[in-house]
Structures are given as structure tokens and as C-alpha cells.
Amino acid sequence: MLGIASSIGFLNDPADILIFLGRLHPLVVHLPIGFLLLGALAQLAARKSKFQAITPLISYVWALGAISAFFAIVFGYLLSLSGDYDSDTLFWHKWMGVGVLLFSIGCYYATKKITTSFVYTKWFFVGLTVVSVFITGHLGGNLTHGSTYLLEFAPNAIRGLAGMPPKVEPRKKITELDSADVFLDLISPMLDSKCTSCHNDGKKKGKLELTTYNEIMSGGEGGDVVIPGDALNSELFKRITLPEDHDDFMPSEGKRPLTDNEVSLIEWWINVGAPPDGYFTQFDPEQEFVAMAENFFGLDRENQLYGRAVEAPDKALVDSLESRGFVLNRLMKDNYFMDANFSLSERSLESSDVELLVQLKEQLIWLDISNSNVHDTHLGTLGQLENLVRLDVSGNAITNVGVNHLVELKNLESLNLFDTRVSDGVLPVISNMKALQKVYLWQTDISPEGISKLRRENSGLKIISERE
Ligand code: HEC
After folding, report:
1. N or C: lower Cβ tally within 10 Å for the chain?
2. Eight-state DSSP code of residue 255
3. Which residue, 127, 161, 195, sits at the end of a domain?
4. Are residues 430 and 326 in the same domain?
């Protein structure tokens, strides 16, 4: 069959049916293992007078073992054509497998044809068969899972006996960016989760291993994959930035790709010289990369705010706020963040409304109290709404004194002060709101000079100071 296959050129480009059969190998190999170990066990048992009756059956067990070993070898050979496996391990696995077949045939003849005078021959073959089954199986496991698989979780004493280094302590979870190692905490975990299933020491697709720094730098089939300082010419970077449907795109086979953030961080890492270690922040990353790294470690504000589970608000509280004229909405399907809007109410905002609203501070992230007769004293209490992301206080007679109370709103991204009495004195407060992205300052007492100064000093801030 293999002869035919090779003569019509299957072996260079195996047809689907052959790959299909090859992939049956991991399933089929369990048959010879079972039969052959059963054969050896039966052989031992038959020495007891109680089990002597099974003796005539034993040779059939060996025969089944040999036949199934034959098929396992054929399928295994087909499998070896379709994947690239570590060639040394593959060589030994293949020939030990052939050994299993020959030894089990030996067992068959020794039990079937040859009489008791050949008792040593029989035990000789049985011993060889059992030992080679174990070795072949172990090598096969190494081929699919990598040679460290078996002892990965073994106690260090046993790992030591096998010549393996002690277990690597898992890296501590990064809780502040300053303690993150540029390779071990940032780059290596990305490759571990998206690449090393195909690029490890047992399965080196493209002859490339991505498990350690040294392996990465020693490159693959096509030579170096990382050129320190030059991401654009690094094969590794090219592979992860191709269109996803391109043949050479990595990870291949439609596996979950790296995120845009991860790709950019890998680019950054290569461009700063692909350092093997050192703290991330030590390389003076620009603000955008800091933000990406914070996002990668789950340290960014957005992750901390929206990633948190928020409990459902108290029903009675919601009811009484609604009866006072607040329109409440839940903003996200899988969380209880809420939006409260008082601007449509005919009433003026009263201190008792504000007191109630503060009880919703876990859930409340958007608040609109525009044109509601809000005073500076109200803002004093509203300063406790620490999760607020958007606040609209436009059309109220509030001043710098009131806005001063809002400086504690660490999550505030948008602040609407349109048509209020704030003046230049409010600008330092606005500059201090670190999360702020957008501020409306149209129709206030702030001077045009003040606006342009604010603009100059806060380049990331969108300032709306006239009719849009
Ligand atoms: C599903 C298996 C699979 C995964 C997952 C995978 N690769 Fe590959 N990779 C391959 C195969 C197969 C080849 C060889 C064929 C080729 O060059 O396209 C290869 C080749 C490569 C090469 C070229 C090596 C050389 O020198 O020729 C690079 C670089 C590479 N992969 C990087 C990656 C990176 C980075 C990831 C993770 C984002 C990844 N791979 C994930 C299967 C995979």
C-alpha cells in the first residue's frame, strides 16, 4: 500500500484519506498495547494451576496484538508524513514500534508452535515485548506532548533523577507595571498562549521553538525569526501581521490570533532590541505602549472599572428615584452599571434627591442633571459618585467652588459644564482630572486665553468651547 502511495506521489503531498488514516494512529495504538500487556499477564497467570485452562488461548492474544501492532505502524507512518515531528524521537519511536511487532510475532510462535522445551525463548520474547511497548508508548507521548510532558508536574526529586531542572516557579501575577519583566511577564506569556502548542520542543513546526528566549533567538527553518531592533524585517513579526487568511499567517489553522495590543507590544519589544530580561518600564516605553501593557496585565482603569462585577441596585431605591423624576437605565447586559437622567424632570434637584442618588454610587456611571437648578452644595455630595464616567451639569448656576468637589471622580471621562458660571479658576481642577477625555466649556466665564492654555497643556483632552 505504501509502495503504491509513494509511486503515485502521495508521499510528498499526502492525500486527505491518508492524513485521515494517519490521525487514527493515536486511537489505534491502544489496541496493541492492551492485547500485548494482556498476553504477558495471561502468560504469567497460566503458570498457576488455577488458570492453566487459558493456555491454549494465549497465542490468539499474541496474534491479535501483532495484527493490531501492524495497523498501528501503518497508520503511524502515515501520520509521520503529515506532521513535522522531532526527527530523533520519531526515528526511535518508529523503529521501537517495528520492534514491538517483531517481538510479538516471536511471542506468538513461541507459544503456538514451540513446545515447553523452548520455555526460555518464550519468556525472552515476552520480556522484550513488554519493555518495547513501554518505551515506544513513552516516545509516542513525547512526540505529541513534548518530552517534558510526563514529568512536568512530578516532584523535583523525580525530575532530578530524569536529569530535568527543578520546576519553574510560576510568575507572580503582575499587580503593578513596575514589577513586570519585559520578556518573562510580557512576551513569553503571549507566545505560550497562542504559539507554543505548535512550537515546543516535541513539536517544532517550521523547526521553530518558541518556549524560551534562547530557542526563539535560534530561529527556525528559514533562519532567524527575530532581528533585534528591526521588527519589520523579523519573520516572527511578519507572520503575525499578515492578513489572517494568508497561508503563512500565524497562528496557523485558524487558531485564536494575538490581539492588536499583543502584536503592537511584540513589535515594540523587537524594536527596543528584543531584550531577554529587564523591567518593562526600564525601557522607557511611550505612553501608548504603557497603556497597552496595562491593558495586557488587566491594570488599566477601564478593566478595573468595567471588569468588576456590580450587584443589582436595590429595587426600592430605583422606585423612589423614579418617582422623583429620574429616568434610570441599565447600560450593559452582563452588568448593572446604570445611567440616571434628571434633565427631563419638571422639578428642581433637591438635596434629598442627591442623598438618594449617592446610594446608587456602585452602579451609577452616567449622570445627567442638566437644567435642574443644581447648586454648588449638591456637587459636594455628588463628588462621592466615584464610578461616574459621564457627568452633565450644564445649564445650572454652578461655579468653580462646586466643580472643585468633583476632583475625586477618578473615572470621569466626560464633563459637561456648558452654560454654567465657572471661570478660569476651574482650569487647574480640570487639568487634574486624569481620566478626562472631553470637556464642554462653551458659554462659561472662562477666557479665550484660559481655553488655549488648557488646550496647550492637555493635548489628549477634547475641549468643546463653541457651538459645534
Ligand atoms: C496550529 C499550529 C501552529 C501554531 C499555533 C503556530 N504556528 Fe507557527 N508554524 C506552524 C507551521 C506548520 C509552520 C511551518 C510552515 C510555515 O512556515 O508556514 C510554522 C512556522 C512558523 C514560523 C516560520 C519559521 C521558519 O523559520 O520558517 C514562524 C516565525 C512562526 N511559525 C511563528 C508563530 C507564532 C509567533 C505563533 C503564535 C502567534 C505561531 N507560529 C503559532 C504552525 C503553527
Report:
1. C
2. P
3. 161
4. yes
Q: Give the atom of ligand 1 at the shortest distance from the alpha carbon of 222.
A: 26
| Coil vs helix vs strand at 281 | helix
Whether residue 36 is contained in a domain is answered as yes
Q: Do residues 31 and 112 share a domain?
A: yes
* 286 shares its domain with 319: no
Mean pLDDT computed over 157-172:
76
198 lines ligand 1 (CB under 6 A): yes
Kindly state if the Cβ of 220 falls inside 6 Å of ligand 1.
yes
Grid coordinates representing 246 are 494568508
Question: Is the CB of residue 290 less than 8 Å from the CB of residue 265?
Answer: no
Q: Is residue 310 part of a domain?
A: no
For residues 242-253, average pLDDT: 91
Predicted local confidence at residue 310, as pLDDT: 85
Q: What distance in angstroms lies between residue 141's CA and the mean position of ligand 1's atoms? A: 22
Could you tell me if the CB of 208 is within 6 A of ligand 1? yes
Q: What is the mean pLDDT of the chain?
A: 88
Domain that holds residue 50: 2-161
Helices (runs of H) and strands (runs of E) counted in the chain: 20, 7
Distance (Å) from CA 248 to ligand 1 centroid: 8
Q: What's the domain count of the chain? A: 3
The pTM for the full model equals 0.52
DSSP letter for 187, please. I
Q: Which of 265, 299, 333 is the last residue of a domain?
A: 299
Domain match, 14 and 134 both: yes
Judged by average pLDDT, the poorest of 246-250, 415-419, 433-437 is 433-437
- Give the least confident one: 48-52, 59-63, 334-338, 380-384: 334-338
Check if 200 has its Cβ closer than 6 Å to any atom of ligand 1.
no
Whose CA is closest to atom 4 on ligand 1? 251
Distance 288 CA to ligand 1 centre (A): 28
Q: Vertex 305, ends 303 and 311: CA angle to 5°?
A: 125
pLDDT in tens, 174-232: 888 889 999 999 999 999 989 998 898 878 899 999 999 999 999 999 999 999 999 99
C-alpha 194 – ligand 1 centre gap (Å):
10
On the CB side of 55, CA atoms within 13 Å amount to 14
Ligand 1 atom nearest to 219, measured from its CA? 26
Residue 287 has what pLDDT?
86
For residues 284 and 256, the answer to whether their CB atoms sit within 8 Å is no
Q: Are residues 145 and 246 in the same domain?
A: no
From CA 21, how far away is CA 28, in angstroms rounded? 10
438 and 319 share a domain? yes
Give the tens place of pLDDT for each residue, 364-388.
Answer: 999 999 999 999 999 999 999 989 9
Q: Is the pLDDT of residue 128 over 90?
A: yes
**In this structure, is residue 272 part of a structural domain?**
yes
Closest residue by CA, ligand 1 atom 7:
251
- pLDDT score recorded for residue 6: 46
Is residue 140 located within the same domain as residue 239? no
Q: Do 193 and 73 have their domain in common?
A: no
Give SS3 for 223.
strand
